[in-house]
């Protein structure tokens, strides 16, 4: 008999998590692997992925590595063709350009939008035909609370992340009758390696106090949202942005 907790299992599914060599991508990949999925870790080099692959395999998890630069569409296409069918995509890759708007040249703006937004569209175009053919798929785009709460010095990043949320809704509208759901995860303040210097700064302390939880999130706390949206339990959740921020965007001041 199938029980309700079984609806959160991902046995028999293959999940690709981009940017999963470290940080939030790694934590989501590890969570999906523990839920039974075969996970495809993605990174720029085999050397970067090797320790993570070894860790999952030592725990008895099914996993393989997929290596390509996110901006290289040809390498992307060849790597995915070799990887085989993908049921679940978590698009997590993203870069930031922390400069005032006036200092970001048009070419720099376009490059970041290509990395953070357009590359996701290219990736989805490669994977969706197989999902449609199989009648099942999960698209999960990792955005940011910066998509709706702007701050100075990150205009290209904010624009790209807002675009990802819009793309999520557009795909929900187009693919919902094909057994495919499209959702987004919007993280708040997470204590990843990338944010170590920020956390130690006065700005990082203000961010901690701004959060009702009064702390930065542990990266592992993102995994539950990813497992839920990828699972059969979320079969009627479509076009939604699931915010994981300790209450930052729900509050005016605390």
Automatic annotation (TrEMBL):
Residues 13-188 form the Ketoreductase domain. Signal peptide: none annotated. It comes from the Bacteria. It holds the Pfam family adh_short_C2. Gene3D superfamilies: NAD(P)-binding Rossmann-like Domain (3.40.50.720). InterPro entries: KR_dom (IPR057326), NAD(P)-bd_dom_sf (IPR036291), SDR (IPR050259), SDR_fam (IPR002347). Coiled coil: none annotated. PANTHER family: 3-OXOACYL-(ACYL-CARRIER-PROTEIN) REDUCTASE, 3-OXOACYL-[ACYL-CARRIER-PROTEIN] REDUCTASE FABG. Belongs to the short-chain dehydrogenases/reductases (SDR) family. This is SDR family oxidoreductase. It comes from Reyranella aquatilis.
